[in-house]
Design brief:
Helix content is 35%, strand content 21%. Strands 4-3-2-1-5-6 form a 6-stranded mixed sheet. It has a 4-stranded mixed sheet with strand order 8-9-12-20, with helices on one face. Strands 7-10-11 form a 3-stranded antiparallel sheet. A hairpin with a 2-residue loop joins β10 and β11. The two termini are 36 Å apart. The chain binds manganese (II) ion. Manganese (II) ion binds next to loops.
Length: 369
């Protein structure tokens, strides 16, 4: 886990970027951005939890009373104030922004701020110029430190171990949700804080729906089952997908599987610092298009992974983002044939000086159960 010093150092670096971009303050609400700079994580909720980080001056938390102790424990920021229940939120927010002299300033708020809370800002400081925190933090968060990569590796290992423990149960358990429950149990009991996203166990024709989730469908012989799972550990996410064959599959299924496997390998080999993200997408897409399944590859090749399960950089067509050492993203080509089946293979890789290294080691060749 990060130490308090690391959070402080990030704040110091952020202040330099704020200077460059003439941003007067960050107004953070619960989000990966808030954790990244303060060390405090909670899910967004209806009562505002706010941390102001001015370009010059000390940062401060403003929280409902029930969060006061937790914020003091988790965050390096000493100034923790509590909303006064009597005075309205808008009035207190206005007073706070006035004290910081940013009522008409340039304020960065999280990209994932709830609209209902953005409304409070607009009412408290209608003259302010609001920008997204991604403009300040986006690049910094894309390049992971060694410490962050170690966290992500451990999160990846948890998901990988859960998969390995669950595959043999395809014969024993009959329904998608039973396998999903087992995956989640395995991750949790090994120390994960939870799932990084809704676990996907998609059997047979459900496999053509990339974000199927899991339902009560029974597994059948001669079908594929796609498992897409991620653990959260020290707030960092992992994301891994394997498609397994239950019993004997058709030659067409085998052909599609091998196409996706080859696309995955080509994309992984294409990754190196300096190239544009679109080239990685192209490497995977070319294999699938050349095999005649291009119209069934219905999504981008990958997405950044870190404190958020989907974050920049995005590995997609026409994206010019230059890859750099320390970036972490998924490579996950897939082929989805509606009404029939789907295949997806996914690992998160970290860009290195020479190329890239997958965070997971679980074999991706055809897995039969
Ligand atoms: Mn993914």
């Amino acid at each position: 886990m990060e130490t308090m010093r690391e959070f402080k150092e990030r704040c110091a670096r952020v202040r330099v970027i704020m200077d460059e971009k003439s941003v007067d303050a960050l107004c953070l609400t619960p989000s990966a951005d808030m954790y990244y700079l303060t060390g405090f994580w909670t899910d967004p909720a209806e009562r505002p939890i706010l941390c102001t980080l001015p370009r010059a001056g000390e940062p401060m938390f403003m929280v409902p009373r029930l969060y006061e102790e937790q914020v003091r424990q988790r965050s390096w920021i000493d100034d923790v104030q509590v909303w006064d229940e009597e005075t309205g939120t808008v009035a207190q927010l206005r007073e706070l922004l006035q004290k910081l002299k940013i009522l008409e300033g340039k304020i960065a708020v999280p990209d994932r701020l709830w609209m209902s809370q953005f409304r409070l800002f607009q009412e408290a400081a209608p003259e302010a110029d609001y920008v997204f925190t991604s403009e300040i933090l986006g690049r910094m968060r894309m390049i992971k430190s060694e410490q962050e990569i170690r966290c992500m590796e451990r999160a990846a290992q948890l998901a990988e171990a859960a998969l390995a423990a669950t595959f043999p149960l395809c014969r024993e358990y009959s329904r998608e949700y039973e396998l999903a429950a087992h995956l989640e149990y395995e991750m949790r009991v090994k120390g994960a804080e939870g799932s990084a996203f809704e676990t996907i166990v998609a059997s047979g024709p459900n496999g053509s729906i990339p974000h199927h989730g899991s339902g009560d469908r029974k597994l059948r012989d001669g079908e594929f089952v796609t498992f897409d799972v991620g653990a959260r550990l020290n707030r960092y996410c992992s994301d891994i997908t394997r498609t397994v064959a239950v019993g004997k599959i058709s030659p067409k299924m085998e052909r599609v599987y091998n196409t996706v496997w080859k696309a995955y390998q080509e994309a992984v080999s294409a990754v190196k610092p300096g190239i544009a993200s679109e080239n990685v997408d192209l490497a995977a897409r070319r294999v699938i298009v050349d095999s005649g399944y291009g119209e069934y590859f219905i999504h981008r090749t990958g997405h950044g992974v870190g404190l958020d399960i989907h974050e920049p950089p995005y590995i997609r067509q026409r994206d010019q983002t230059r890859l750099e050492a320390g970036m972490t993203f998924s490579i996950e080509p897939g082929v989805y044939i509606p009404g029939e089946f789907g295949v997806r293979i996914e690992d998160v890789v970290v860009v290195t000086e020479e190329g890239c290294r997958p965070l997971t080691k679980y074999p991706a060749e055809m897995i039969a159960v």
